[in-house]
Write a structure and sequence with these properties.
The protein is mainly β. It has one helix and 23 strands. The protein is elongated.
Length: about 325
């Protein structure tokens, strides 16, 4: 082979090697770029497991170009509806299919479970779950999207194992105590030829029973006693800013409990004049408000749970006024 041919061959090989180097570099760059683009959604966690008592978990991201496209209840594979808020806490929209395109918060709360998902920064997400008192596990999926890419975060919450009643304590706050009000009672009309005496029960009719109930702003205040009603002691009186007890008990519930009034058998006799006449009765009632703290013990952790609220009682005082008219 001539020297010229050898030089041409070497030159050709150099061009081939340069071409292959460029081709391989382009291939690896394309793979890297594709892989980098595919991993724009990179949560530090893709599965959250939480006990029934609830709690908070924070998820971190490297990239910020993603959004919450939806939240799906795994029981029935349906999208969850709720409320969305801006980063400053202002309500954006109520009762709609949840999603979040930027910073802010979405909430979904029921009487026995619920969650908040907060995005305070573009590279973090906080998932906060309420206690799950439904009696079954609560599982849902957070769907994230960025362009054509999507990724899911699975959230699995166990059912709460419930609580055991420990005790109830009462106290008088500034807004508590007895207040008096008057309600219209029974009315009577007559047309007599001569006067006569008339006997009747002045504290009678609808609403004269003594009723009481508990109320609380806490969402699960009555969740733990619905299937296992408990009797708790209630105050019997308030005197000089102090509570007194005589062993009276009632069921801890938000439903009104009725007891017969001790004044239902009270009798009054009046003289009815001849001719047309009428009279009515005004009945005096007492409303009693007392603050309470209900102490429960968690069956799993044995930790104490305190529920605060008000015990409310309505009852006739035994006082009444007879109003006559023509």
């Amino acid at each position: 082979m001539s020297k010229i041919a050898k030089k041409l061959r070497i030159l050709k090989m150099k061009h081939v090697n340069i071409f292959l180097t460029i081709l391989i570099s382009f291939y690896f760059y394309s793979c890297y770029d594709s892989e980098n683009e595919f991993n724009l959604i990179d949560p530090s966690l893709t599965q959250i497991e939480m006990e029934g008592e609830g709690g908070e978990t924070e998820i971190l991201f490297t990239h910020s170009n993603w959004k919450i496209a939806g939240i799906i209840n795994q029981n029935g594979d349906v999208k969850i509806s709720g409320d969305s808020y801006s980063i400053d806490g202002s309500l954006i929209r109520e009762n709609y299919t949840l999603k979040l395109d930027s910073l802010g918060r979405v909430d979904a709360f029921w009487t026995n479970k619920g969650f908040s998902i907060v995005r305070n920064s573009f590279t973090s997400l906080k998932v906060a779950l309420k206690e799950n008192s439904t009696g079954e596990d609560f599982n849902f999926t957070i769907v994230l999207e960025s362009g054509n890419e999507s990724k899911e975060i699975q959230v699995k919450q166990k059912k709460s194992q419930g609580y055991t009643f420990d005790r109830i304590e009462y106290k008088l706050d500034e807004s508590d105590g007895d207040s008096i009000f008057v309600k219209q009672g029974t009315s009577f009309s007559f047309n007599l030829q001569s006067s006569q005496e008339f006997s009747f029960h002045p504290i009678n009719g609808i609403g004269i029973d003594k009723t009481s109930f508990f109320k609380s702003a806490e969402y699960d205040a009555f969740a733990w006693t619905e299937s296992d009603s408990i009797l708790v002691e209630i105050p019997s009186g308030i005197e000089n800013g102090k509570l007194y007890f005589n062993g009276d008990k009632t069921i801890y519930t938000a439903t009104s409990i009725r007891n017969d009034s001790k004044y239902g058998n009270l009798q009054e006799t009046v003289t009815i004049p001849s001719g047309n006449s009428k009279f009515s009765v005004e009945i005096q009632y007492r409303e009693r408000n007392v603050s309470y703290a209900l102490y429960l013990v968690n069956n799993r952790t044995e930790k104490e749970k305190i529920i605060n609220g008000k015990w409310v009682e309505f009852a006739p005082t035994g006082n009444y006024t007879i109003n006559r008219g023509n």
